[in-house]
Amino acid sequence: MSEGLLNIYRRRAKQFYYAFLTFLSLVLLGSLILYPFFKLPLPAKMLIYASSLVLLVAMFSIPISLVIRKRGFPVISDTDPYWSYTATRRYFWSFVIAGLPFGVAFLIYIIFASLLVLFIGYFLTLCGLILVKPREEDVV
Fold first, then answer.
1. CA 115 – CA 109 distance, rounded (Å)
2. Taking a C-beta distance cutoff of 8 angstroms, is the pair 95, 128 a contact?
3. Angle at 16 between CA 15 and CA 18, to 5 degrees
4. Nearest-angstrom CA–CA distance, 42 and 32
5. How many whole angstroms from its chain centre is CA 56?
6. pTM of the full predicted structure?
7. pLDDT tens digits, the chain, 140 residues: what are they?
């Protein structure tokens, strides 16, 4: 495959990554803006349980995302005729699975309006996404 197409794809993969981060950040920002309308007094035990649930989801989802990354890459563009589709699909699923802690935290935020749990989920997801960031050697 020509080096020009590979460079274009690598740039688009990074754009996809940053678009995913931007989406999560905009959801967090929207939640912060709406927080004064939904805040409720929550018992400390409820916060501990919800935070533990988000941590438990992160303990399972981030290693699964790393396994997908380790087994799915590199994609060899010379042998796979659908190399860009294959790489994009693997990036997508690794990003989504790394983003599960924020998804669970956002559901808890919708139900109980816990800003602490939302921040924990966001930062755990951010750490997971940093670990699965697209690299130059992913598509060769």
1. 7
2. no
3. 65
4. 17
5. 16
6. 0.90
7. 578 888 899 999 999 999 999 999 999 999 999 998 878 888 999 999 999 999 999 999 999 999 999 998 888 888 888 888 899 999 999 999 999 999 999 999 999 988 999 999 999 999 999 999 999 888 88
